[in-house]
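Revision sheet: structure tokens.
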Amino acid sequence: MAGFAVVDCETTGLRATQERIIEVGVVLLDSSGAFQDEWSTLVNPLRPVTSQFIHGIYDDDVASAPTFTQILPGLTSLLETRAVVAHNAVFDVAFLNAEFERSSYPMTIPAQDTVCTMELSKIYLPEGRHSLVSATERAGISL
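Predicted:
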């Protein structure tokens, strides 16, 4: 692996098989964890946006955004040689893999190539909530 791709996805809902990605952000780190680059984009889900109370993204925000299929070349070039890191990686990776499948793109992110910071917080941080905000507070990291 060439390092890490820290990923966060915002979605229209919670079920990867039925909902869509509406925003993707990626921070690239080298193998020692040093920052290299970042990339993000809104994504047009080609359907109404829901769950605005969670992410604050509305239909008008994504109306002129590229579709997932349109961002595939750039996104996959960021991910293909790196371990994917996410807080609740199961969620983000399920959505990415569902979008790859819907786009007939021959890529899947295997579970063994992911790092879940939420699961790691349960092991390495003192007891408490495991949301990203709570975990970073207990780890002494400011957002």
